[in-house]
Amino acid sequence: MTQWTIERLGRKGDGVALSGDARALAPLVLPGEVVEGEALDGRIAAPRIVTPSPDRIRPVCGHYRACGGCSLMHATDAFTTAWKTQVVLTALAAQGIAAPLPQVHVSAPNSRRRAVLSGRRTKKGATVGFHGRASDVIVDLTECHVLRPQILAALPLLRRIVIAGASRAAELSLVVIHGPAGLDVAVRGGKPMDPALFQALAALADEGDLARLDWDGQAITRRAPALPMGRAHVVPPPGAFLQATAQGEAALLAAVRDTVAGASKVADLFAGCGTFTLPLAEQAAVHAVEGLAAPLSALDSAWRATSGLNRVTTEVRDLARRPLMLDELGRFDAIVIDPPRAGAEAQMRQIAAARVPVVAAVSCDPVSFAKDARILADAGYGIDRLWVVDQFRFSPHVELVAALTHR
In 235-292, which residue ranges form alpha helices assigned H by DSSP? Predict the structure, then answer.
């Protein structure tokens, strides 16, 4: 067996292993560890730990080695927090951008309110869970240390839903959201709805006391699965994107509010269902722009139903293809932008040209954010404050908010 020393973790959480001039990636390791294993196509599939790191701990979940949902459960919280912070600072440094030390928020275990699970019928019933690491095999969950208890308690019901509506060849996607009204479940990839299936699913929704069960766009709604966003309550489209934990959302919102405090006219770009729009409307007029109509419709309905908010306007627009332009941006005091993982190069170029005084940039990818931030830095913006938000415990995923002001 070849021995390797783990130099560091890559930004996806795998270790960079060195052995002489050879280099490979290894999962479930930590910097400074010595491991044994053979590399195939640049990867050590099953490294054996020879010399463990002092930051190594025993994973608390019995599924850990097989499940692909977590990849850093073998590290202390202190190590993971420091590593995620360094991932952000390293990405910015690579673009030549100075940043202050960030404030850090870490969501608690068993706090994730939204999960995208996979389900498949089997000869003996059904499996529901996350895919195995680098595998299309579904790990049938019996425990999980990231999901809310209410989602875990619903796993037997979710298996029965899969049995009722999945063909043997199909893999179902189940987006499960837990909110104040209960569970909101959106299933994709199932059999076509017919009267018998509808009756079976309705009975399961009643038995499980689901707020809503949506089957490939056909909803069985027992009560509105409304979620609080500031003073407003939003009924999101089935399977809608939401921040993973309520605590993480609160941390992101607090950072955004801090950044745009005092602004009277705010543009919220990539606004979704209104995570930032509706709370900010308590202090400012907000123009919400989003590429999909359904989230904006939910946002608008919530705004109209809530008294005491400032004016909110909405616009369906693909900001990657048609960013808000210089003349459109000039009427705003502040911009909130929360783009997808690929970033928002085209939109950032227009913001840089418009020199909007304040930008609250939210990102789920430090590398794409740093590239976007370079565009703003070249136009005279600097990062005044920085927040790192870890609402995906035990994973390499990290989110951030940066307060950028024009100098």
Answer: 246-260, 277-280
Asked if the model's pLDDT at residue 407 lies above 90, the reply is: no
Name the strand (E) or helix (H) holding 42. Answer: none
Each residue of 35-86: pLDDT tens digit?
999 999 999 999 999 999 999 999 999 999 999 999 999 999 999 999 999 9
Give the pLDDT band (50/70/90) at residue 148: very high
Residue written as token pair 């949902």: 69
Return d(Cα 252, Cα 311) in angstroms, integer: 22
The residue with tokens 């790192």 is: 388
Rounded distance between C-alpha atoms, residue 235 and residue 227, angstroms: 6
Phi, psi of 212 (to 5 degrees): -150, 140
The SS3 call for residue 228 is strand
Is the CA virtual torsion 368, 68, 225, 292 positive or negative? positive
Residues 255-309 have pLDDT tens digits of: 999 999 999 999 999 999 999 999 999 999 999 999 999 999 999 999 999 999 9
At position 147, the amino acid (one-letter code) is L
Grouping H, G, I as helix, E, B as strand and the rest as coil, residue 321 is coil
Report angle CA 214, 202, 178 to the nearest 5 degrees. Answer: 50
Distance CA 119, CA 400 (A): 32
Q: Which two tokens stand for residue 254?
A: 């607090």
Nearest-angstrom CA–CA distance, 33 and 273? 44
Q: What positions carry a catalytic annotation?
A: 364
- Pull the structure tokens for residue 172: 């179902």
Give dist(CA 266, CA 278) in Å, integer: 11
DSSP, collapsed to helix, strand or coil, labels residue 151 as helix
Output the pTM of the full model: 0.95
Count other C-beta atoms under 10 Å from residue 262's C-beta: 10
309-337: string of b/e by CB count within 10 Å (b at 16+)? beebebeeeebbeebbeeeebeebbbbbb
Handedness of CA 31, 35, 38, 44 (dihedral sign): negative
Return the CA Rg of the chain: 23
